C-alpha cells in the first residue's frame, strides 16, 4: 500500500528512477538522466495544457445527427465554441459519477462519511491543490479547531454554538495565514498556489467534525472523518482518470444515462451492507 501510494502521489519520481541509466564497470561512463519533476495537471484551472487537449478532442469528434442520440454532444460543442471552458464541462459531467461512487461505497459497502456533497467537494479540492497538501491542511485545521474547542471548555467559556464556531473560524484563518507566511521556509511550492476555495471546503468538513464531537464523541468524529477522506481519495482517482474524462466528454448521453440508471437501481437496495455482514458475522453464522 505504501509503494502504491508513493507511486500515485509521486509518479514523476518513480518514472525518473525507472528511466535512470547506471554505468557498468566494463563500459564507458554514461550520463545519468536526472529526475525531473513533471508538473501536476490541474483540471480545475483554465490553463492551455488542460483546456487545449479537451477542446481539440471535442472539435475532432464526429458528431453525427443531433437527434435522437447526440443532443448533449451538440450542446457541449456549441458551448465550447462560445467560450465555455471544456474543463468545467468535464468536471460537471464527472460529478454525478463521483456522487454515485460515493453512494455505492456508503449504501453497499458501508463506509460512513459526511453526506455525499462534502466528500465530492473535498475530492475537487484534492484535484485543485493535490491530495497530500489537502490532507495536511485538513489535519492542521482539525487540530486547531479541536484545540480551541478544548480550551474553551477548560476555561469554562459558555458560548452559544454559532459564536463559538465563528471564533474557531477566526483561529483557523489565523493558523492558515501562519502556514502561508511560513511557506518560504517550509519550501513546499504548492503552498504558494493555495486559493480560498480549498480552504473553505476544508473548513466545512471541520465544522461537521466538531458537530459530531459535540453530539457523540471524538472517537466517532475521527472515524467518520477518516472514512470521509477515504471517500474523497476514491473520488479523486475518478476525477483525475484521463480515459474517463475523455469518455464522458465524448459520450455524455451514455455516461449521464448509465449514472441515472445506477442511482435508480441503488435506491432499491435494502439489504445489509458488506461491513454489516462482517460486523454481525457471529449472529449470522449462529442461525
Please tell me about this protein's structure.
Helices cover 71% and strands 0% of the residues. By secondary structure, the protein is an all-alpha fold. The protein folds into two domains: 38 residues, no CATH class; 235 residues, no CATH class. The longest helix has 24 residues. The N terminus is likely disordered.
Secondary structure layout plus pairing:
Blueprint: H1 2-9, H2 11-19, H3 48-60, H4 71-81, H5 86-109, H6 117-129, H7 131-154, H8 161-181, H9 183-186, H10 196-215, H11 218-239, H12 242-250, H13 252-267, H14 274-279, H15 281-285
Helix pairs in contact: 1-2, 5-11, 5-12, 5-13, 6-7, 6-10, 6-11, 7-8, 7-10, 10-11, 12-13
Gist of the model:
The chain has 2 domains: 1-38, no CATH class; 48-282, no CATH class. The protein is 71% helix and 0% strand. The chain has helices at residues 2-9, 11-19, 48-60, 71-81, 86-109, 117-129, 131-154, 161-181, 183-186, 196-215, 218-239, 242-250, 252-267, 274-279, 281-285.
List keywords for this structure.
71% helix, 287 residues, mainly alpha, 0% strand, 2 domains
Task: Please give the number of β-strands.
Answer: 0
Beta strand %: under 5%
Nearest-integer average pLDDT: 81
Count of helical segments? Answer: 15
Count the domains.
2
Largest sheet: none
Derived structural class: mainly alpha
Task: Sum up the overall morphology in one term.
Answer: flat
H/E element sequence: HHHHHHHHHHHHHHH
Classify the helix fraction into a percent range: over 70%
Please mark out the parts with pLDDT under 50 across 5 or more consecutive residues, or reply none.
1-38
Q: Return Rg in Å.
A: 23 Å
Amino-to-carboxy terminus distance: 37 Å
Amino acid at each position: 500500500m505504501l509503494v502504491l501510494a508513493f507511486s500515485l502521489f509521486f509518479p514523476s519520481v518513480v518514472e525518473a528512477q525507472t528511466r535512470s541509466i547506471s554505468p557498468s564497470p566494463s563500459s564507458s561512463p554514461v550520463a545519468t538522466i536526472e529526475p525531473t519533476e513533471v508538473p501536476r495537471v490541474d483540471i480545475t484551472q483554465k490553463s492551455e495544457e488542460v483546456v487545449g487537449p479537451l477542446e481539440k478532442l471535442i472539435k475532432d469528434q464526429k458528431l453525427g445527427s443531433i437527434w435522437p442520440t447526440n443532443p448533449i454532444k451538440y450542446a457541449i460543442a456549441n458551448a465550447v465554441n462560445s467560450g465555455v471552458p471544456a474543463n468545467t464541462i468535464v468536471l460537471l459531467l464527472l460529478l454525478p459519477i463521483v456522487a454515485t461512487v460515493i453512494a455505492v461505497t456508503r449504501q453497499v459497502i458501508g463506509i460512513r462519511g459526511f453526506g455525499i456533497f462534502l466528500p465530492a467537494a473535498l475530492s475537487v479540492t484534492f484535484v485543485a491543490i493535490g491530495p497530500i497538501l489537502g490532507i495536511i491542511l485538513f489535519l492542521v485545521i482539525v487540530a486547531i479547531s479541536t484545540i480551541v474547542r478544548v480550551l474553551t471548555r477548560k476555561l469554562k467559556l459558555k458560548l452559544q454554538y454559532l459564536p463559538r464556531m465563528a471564533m474557531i473560524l477566526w483561529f483557523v484563518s489565523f493558523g492558515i495565514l501562519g502556514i502561508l507566511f511560513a511557506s518560504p521556509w517550509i519550501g513546499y511550492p504548492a503552498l504558494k498556489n493555495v486559493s480560498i476555495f480549498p480552504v473553505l471546503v476544508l473548513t466545512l468538513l471541520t465544522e461537521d467534525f466538531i458537530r459530531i464531537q459535540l453530539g457523540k464523541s471524538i472517537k466517532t468524529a475521527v472515524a467518520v472523518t477518516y472514512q470521509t477522506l477515504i471517500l474523497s481519495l476514491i473520488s479523486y482517482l475518478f476525477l483525475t482518470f484521463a480515459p474517463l474524462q475523455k469518455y464522458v466528454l465524448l459520450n455524455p448521453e451514455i455516461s449521464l444515462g448509465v449514472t441515472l440508471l445506477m442511482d435508480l437501481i441503488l435506491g432499491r437496495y435494502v439489504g445489509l451492507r458488506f461491513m454489516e455482514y462482517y460486523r454481525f458475522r457471529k449472529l449470522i453464522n449462529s442461525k
